[in-house]
Amino acid sequence: MYPLKRLLSSCLLLIGLAVAGGFSSTARAEAEAAPAAAQRLCDALLGAMKAGTSLDFAGRRDLLAPEIQRDFDLAFMIRIIVGPPWRSLTPGDQQKLADAFSAYSIATYAQRFHAWSGEHFAVDPSPTALPRGDCVVHTKLFTGDPTPVQLDYLMRKTGDRWRIIDVYLNGTISEVAARRSEYTTILRQGGAPALIALLAGKTEDFARQRPGSS
Predict the structure, then answer these.
(1) For residues 156 and 73, is the Cβ–Cβ distance under 8 A?
(2) pTM of the full predicted structure?
(3) Which of 113, 123, 120, 124 is nearest to 141 (CA)?
C-alpha cells in the first residue's frame, strides 16, 4: 500500500514545495508520457459533453466508465481515503467499498459533464516530476469565463501505465483529502456499511437528478 506519509509529501510538493530541478533525465523522460493519460480522459469528457441530449445519464455513464476506470486508480484512492481503518475491514467490505466508490466516481463525471457550449481542455505536455517517480499533469478547462478551471492530476506509473491517484482543483484542493474529511465521521459512526450505503445513495441520486444539478 502506498504510505500515507509519502502521499502527503507529494501533496505538499504539489502546492508549492516542488523544486524544478534535481530529477534524473530518466525520471523526466518517463514522466513526459503521463500527459497522454490525462489527454485521453479530457477527450472522453469532451465527447460526453458534445453528445449532449443524445445521451441520458446512463448513456454518459456507460461512455465514460471504461476511460475513468483505465485512467484512475480508484481502488488505491479509496484505500487512502479510508486510511488506517482500511486494514481492519474484511476483504468483502473492502471490495464493496471499492466498487461503491468506483460507481460513485463514474456517476459524478457523468452528471457534471453533460452538455457542451464551446468548452475545451488544454493539457500541459510538460508534467512536474516528483521524487520517487510520481508526477503532476497540469490541465485547464476553458469554459468561456475569463479564468479557466485549473485541474492538476497527481499520477503514478503502475507497470507500463500512468494512472491518476488524486485530483487538485485550482492546483490546491485535493479530492482525496476532501473525501477523507467527508467520510471520516461516517466511517467512525457506522463503519464500512454506512459509507457503502452513502456512496450508493449518492450514485442513485445522480441518476435521478437533472443534468448538472447537485
Answers:
(1) yes
(2) 0.83
(3) 120
